[in-house]
Specification:
The chain has 406 residues and is an alpha+beta fold. It folds into 2 domains: 3-231, Vaccinia Virus protein VP39 (Rossmann fold), CATH 3.40.50; 238-367. It has helices at residues 3-26, 34-42, 54-57, 81-91, 107-116, 129-141, 178-182, 256-263, 279-289, 300-305, 350-367, and strands spanning 64-68, 74-78, 98-102, 121-126, 148-151, 164-169, 184-196, 199-207, 213-215, 238-241, 245-248, 267-275, 293-298, 316-320, 326-335, 338-346, 373-378, 392-395, 399-404. It has a 10-stranded mixed beta sheet with strand order 5-4-3-6-7-8-9-17-19-18. Strands 10-11-13-14-15-16-12 form a 7-stranded antiparallel beta sheet, sandwiched between helices. Strands 1-2 form a two-stranded antiparallel sheet. Helix 1 packs antiparallel against helix 2 (34-42) and helix 9 packs across helix 11. It is globular.
Length: 406
């Protein structure tokens, strides 16, 4: 790269970190650690995505596409630096640690290599040979030839270099395969983007003495490309109105025609006086406490002009009822930049769903400052061995995930 271009890239990298720090202050977020800031200022992010412009490579909240399927769907990307910094701090990498990264872009492995130092080890694994091939090339070209790059289905980990002090998963994991926990060292930590009844959360888990995983109190909303291979899980939505309105994470049969008619019909509004704060935490609370929960995906145009206007967020958690009825969370301004959360009720039984939703929101208002505790146990664990204060148990092929609010 010419000297001028190198200087431009160096400046773009410093500007990226400065912007990230400023935004974290403005948004009242926990600032990145000094060690993570240092490596972000050092590792040339643009060198791992040469197809992107400098502006794209160093945008703080932009995930750079690396590989797409034939239908255009992104199957691999370099995560936004905001998310990478957050996950590295969640992982708490220290010099001398052994790290397994699941999902290979190269850049994140280089950051991890800097954090664990020459006495540490970093292994990155991906199922796609094209992805690992480019990761290998760019790691070598930037001086990180010490990072191991492995091509295989990450569902089974990389046992030959285990145990790992930290495992960082950079793809969306619908379930946590037993190999990951088995390959953690005692007292190790797993950081993974999970799907919890339709809610996306990146969670840092510590490995307990009895072998189950216990979340640390710093999980965050993130969006990742889904896992491929044996751990793949297809999330299929129910089209309600073309591509404008769809229902996901449904656990029951739905009368789509009745639901469509309900959303275009009259609605009742309920405003229980609950402030709209911490919406992501509120979503997880709702998902755990609602009897008939689903997630409504609505296009921007429909939010502005369609039948379900003024929804609280997109996607939005909803509560279903019989006859195509539904209760949708909404919000309205109360002045001074503050908002109130409420519920829109649609359909013949919408009021019943809305009353249930309002009870959930009122209970949330008393616990809004409390982060959920998320624990993951092996499938087959008896109910008697699960925490007594559990609110919701999510059963999947490999695990039983327990949600509670201590």
């Amino acid at each position: 790269m010419p000297a001028t271009s190198t200087a431009n890239a160096d400046q773009a990298r410093q500007d990226m970190v400065d912007t990230l720090l400023r935004l974290q202050t403005e948004w009242n977020m926990t600032p990145i650690s000094a060690r993570v800031e240092e490596v972000l200022r050092k590792v040339p992010r643009h060198a791992f995505v040469p197809e992107a412009s400098l502006a794209e490579a160093y945008e703080t909240d932009y995930a750079v596409p690396i590989r797409r399927a034939e239908d255009g769907l992104i199957t691999s990307s370099m995560s936004a630096v905001r998310v990478q910094a957050m996950m590295l701090d969640q992982a708490g990498l220290e010099p001398g640690m052994r790290v397994l990264e699941i999902g290979s872009g190269g850049y994140n492995a280089a950051l991890a290599s800097e954090l664990v130092g020459p006495a540490g080890e970093v292994t990155t694994v991906d199922i796609d040979a094209d992805v690992t091939g480019r990761a290998r090339r760019y790691l070598d070209a930037t001086g990180y030839g010490n990072v191991r790059v492995v091509t295989r289905d990450a569902e089974f980990g990389v046992a030959e270099f285990a145990p790992y002090d930290r495992i960082i998963v950079t793809v969306r994991a619908w379930d946590l395969p037993p190999a990951w926990t088995a390959q953690l060292a005692g007292g190790g930590r797993l950081v993974a983007p999970m799907r919890l009844r339709g809610v996306s959360r990146t969670v840092a888990f510590d490995l307990a003495d009895d072998g189950h995983l216990v979340s640390r109190p710093d999980h965050h909303l993130t969006v990742f490309v889904p896992m491929q291979g044996a751990g793949a899980h297809e999330e299929r939505g129910i089209a309600v109105q073309g591509e404008d309105i769809a229902l996901y994470d449904v656990e029951e049969s739905v009368d789509v025609a009745a639901l469509r008619a309900a959303l275009h019909g009259p609605r009742a509004e309920f405003w229980p006086g609950v402030e709209f704060v911490y919406p992501d935490r509120m979503h997880l609370w709702t998902a755990a406490h609602a009897d008939r929960h689903a997630t409504l995906h609505i296009s921007g145009d429909v939010v502005e002009h369609g039948p379900a206007g003024r929804v609280a967020q997109r996607p939005t958690p909803v509560v279903l009822a019989d006859g195509g009825s539904v209760a949708v969370r909404a919000k309205r301004a109360t002045g001074g930049g503050r908002f109130e959360t409420g519920v829109f009720a649609y359909g013949p039984h919408g009021r019943e769903a809305a009353e249930h939703y309002v009870d959930i929101l009122r209970a949330w208002a008393k616990r809004k400052d409390t982060m959920a505790r998320i624990e993951v146990w092996p499938s087959g664990t008896p109910d008697a061995d699960l925490p007594e204060d559990r609110v919701r148990v999510l059963d999947k092929p490999h695990t039983r995930t327990v949600l509670s609010w201590p």
